[in-house]
Amino acid sequence: MATVKKTTKKTTAKKKTVNAQMLITAYMEYVLEHGEEPKTIYKFCKEHNIEEAEFYKYFGSFQNLKAGIWNAFHTNTVGVLHKNSDFESYTNKDKMLSYFFTMFEMLTANRSYVLVALDQHKNMLKNMSQLKELRGHLTSFAADLIEAGNDEKNYKITKNPVRLFKEGAWVQFLFLLKYWMEDNSPAFEKTDVAIEKSINAIFDIFETTPLESIIDFGKFLFKENFTMAK
Length: 230
Hints:
By secondary structure, this protein is mainly α. The N terminus is likely disordered.
């Protein structure tokens, strides 16, 4: 009779695939569960069973990783826009509107993380430093729109100031971000209204069209600030 040998299977733990997205996801989950960032990169890596050196391949610090999260919001926003085959035929104003609407959809999908991330330090400058790289991406996007519009104009005097517009777009984003963080309307519909009115206003300034939308935006701000102050 043939003897049957027992075989034992060796099970080995599947090694985690470490990349920037994996680290971002793990970091965001930690912040959501604990309400704060990990104490050290060493502890963070040990908890996720990865080598510390693997972390440093992608990010030099948690601050660098946090900036990467905001960069990802921008990258994903632009990716969504270009999936729409009609996007390139939009007017510059509609492109900017689409960018802001899509960006705030991204932020809303990650609202719990964003609120914690922007409220970690009493020093507002420390909270806002994670947006430094996003600022570069957003202002570049805005500058490209204005430069494209300027290329269609024959006279230098009719061209719009690129630097002024792109910096205005960043200030506008910061205003809308703060407004969105304080917005408690259903589906953040008041933020949608603020986005539309503010974009209309800034483009009316640059296109020197009637100032009805600027006055309309001013009335909206007065009404909302008065309501929130109650």
